[in-house]
Amino acid sequence: MARTRTSGVTTVAVERPFTLHIGPHRVHGRIDRVDRLPQGGFGLVDYKTGTPPTGGADEDGRIVMRLYLAGAREAWQVEPRVATLEYILEGENRRENPDGTEIAAAVEQAHATLDEISAGRFPAQPSWACRTCDYRLLCPAMDR
Ligand code: SF4
Q: What is the pTM of this model?
């Protein structure tokens, strides 16, 4: 919290829900914190209590952050510059500052995944792992 106070950002929203339309699919999510940045524009923050991922899981987290950025842009007509995963217990951050092409690629990847799920080719299997799953944003098994 002290780090947030000294960073120069102004928090403008917390727990803000959004809906992102991807083809025939609707992705519902919630941004833990939305900041106005001192240099202009907005930043998104998602709090995590787990351990920062490595390898492929780290890349998955980047895709989710890009979807957050796309969702915020669609829902609130703002151009968020950066999304940050804050691992509050570990004191680590993962920042993602993608360009438009990278965000479009993440949306396209999500579209393909959602098409597969809708076709029943990847049935969701809820378990204890859902609490910290990076795919909660996309998962049809999650209560909306
Ligand atoms: S949220 Fe969905 S994808 Fe993630 S572990 Fe749970 S059932 Fe599987």
A: 0.78
